[in-house]
Design brief:
Length: 198
Amino acid sequence: MTEELYVPEWMRDINPELQQRIDREQQQRRRANEAQLRPRNEEQRFFKQWQGEADSATAHLKTLAGIGAPKADVDNQRLRLTDALVHLGRFEEALLTAPDDQTRHHVRKVIAAVDKDDSRVCKCGDVSRVTKVGEGILPGSHKKDSIFSPVHNKITPVVVCAKCGSMNVTPAVPVHHQGFEKTQAEKEAFSRYVNRQR
């Protein structure tokens, strides 16, 4: 015994040709919407993500200013906005929105790293070290993050020395870094190491 699919009264009069045309139009609209929503490549995804973060932090700042929120909440949103602006390569704005001297100092270090010669490396060499958390190994220089570099006019990795903390923004990632992906434990260990260096 087969069950028949219930078709509402208003749909019973639609002929097959009309239904096919409706289906085609819906598919075209769906594809057009997906094309607008989905970035086509990594660079578009990067800019969409960080522009969204900047817009979100700006909206939160406006809301917090309107209600007279505590300074800690405002500073947290200013820090989010500064981080997004650095990723977008808008360094002058990032310096203006930085909530404290430590953040401004970090932004200046990133600016100096962007302006630094791509072939310049620190004197530490390729010294790998074992992290204190887990069994992971951080190479002497590794990719910390990616930012848009106005000098290179593209998204470029921030290469940081694990020993001395010197950084360079260069598309030429050191050979010993290629294929290196940090685990969560290694990210936490690196974050603690950098915080101790400050």
